C-alpha cells in the first residue's frame, strides 16, 4: 500500500508506532520497523543524550529499516537537556522525528539542516495548521479517543480527520482509536495517509512491558479509561485503577482549588512501577479507548500483517462489492 506517508518515510505500510513512555524502547521500535511500519524510540524515557545515543545504537543493531525518535517538549522547572537530545538524534543519523507537546519551531532549523523529517502530534485542526505553517513535514492528528493527552476540544476522529483533510496540504496520520484494518481503512477514507497506533502496540509480544500490562489491556473494555487532570487543563486519558479513582476523588473534592501537587502521588513516577514492575494499581498511565478492541497479544509482525491483509479484503472485497 502506497500513501504519502509511506513515500515520505520510506516504509512499506502506512502504520506508525507512536512514542510511548517506557514502551518505545529499541526492541519495540525495531520490531515495528522490521514488520514494515515505522517504529519510534521515546526520547524522554532515556532522560539523557548519552542514554538516548545508546538506545538508538541498540535499535540500529536490530533493524536496517527506517525508525524515528519521539521528543515531547514539556514545560518544566528543570527541563530535559533538549539541545543535547536534538544533537544526539542528528549525530546518530536518525532521519525521522516525532515531536509532541509544545511548539517544536525552535528545534526545526537544526533538524531540517540535518535532512530530518518531522511529524508533529496535534489534537486540533488549528494546531495542525500551525505545524504545517512552521515547516513540519507531516502531522499526527489525535482524536478524543486517544490515550495520553487528547487536548481540551473533545473532538472525535469521525469529525476531526475529515476536517484535517479539508484544511491541510501536508500528509497526516490518524491517531486515537486505531487498532485494526477497519481503523486503517476508515482513516484512509476520511483523508488520512496512514495511522498511528500506541495502545495497541503495547499488547504485543515484543512490547518491553510487564505481562500484567498486556493482560490488563486484553481484559479492558472501551469503558475502562478515565480522563484525569481536566481541572488543570492538562487532560490525560488513562486506564482506570485504584490510584486513578483516588486521583479523581481528589479532583472532585478539591474542585477549583486543585493543584498539581495534590495529585503528584498518582501521576509522578508511575510509569516504571506499571510498565516495568507490573504494579497495576500504582496510578495514571496513558491508555486509549481502543483497549476495547484488543483481544490478543500477537507478535508485531503478526499484528501488522493481519491489518494489511484484512485492509486489502475490506477495500477490494467488501467495499468493492457494495459499490458494485
Report on this model:
This protein is α/β, with parallel strands linked by helices and 324 residues long. The chain has 2 domains: 4-205, Alpha-Beta Barrel (TIM Barrel); 221-286, no CATH class. It is 44% helix and 14% strand. It is built from 15 helices and 10 strands. The strands form 2 sheets. It has an 8-stranded parallel beta sheet. α2 (26-34) runs parallel beside α4 (49-62), α4 (49-62) runs parallel beside α5 and α9 packs across α15. The protein is globular and about 55 Å long. The two termini are 22 Å apart.
Topology:
Layout: H1 4-9, E1 15-17, H2 26-34, E2 39-42, H3 43-46, H4 49-62, E3 67-73, H5 82-92, E4 96-101, H6 108-113, E5 117-122, H7 125-134, E6 138-142, H8 157-167, E7 172-175, H9 181-189, E8 195-197, H10 199-202, H11 211-219, E9 225-228, E10 236-239, H12 242-254, H13 264-267, H14 270-276, H15 300-323
Parallel strand pairs: 1-8, 2-3, 3-4, 4-5, 5-6, 6-7, 7-8
Antiparallel strand pairs: 9-10
Helix pairs in contact: 2-4, 4-5, 9-15
Alpha carbon gyration radius: 19 Å
Spatial separation of the terminal alpha carbons: 22 Å
What is the makeup of the main sheet?
A: 8 strands, parallel
What is the element string, with H for helices and E for strands?
A: HEHEHHEHEHEHEHEHEHHEEHHHH
**Order of strands in the sheet with the most strands?**
1-8-7-6-5-4-3-2
Number of domains: 2
Number of strands: 10
The fraction of residues assigned to DSSP E strands is 5-15%
CATH level-two architecture of the largest domain: Alpha-Beta Barrel
What proportion of the residues is helical, as a percent range? 40-55%
| Overall 3D form | globular
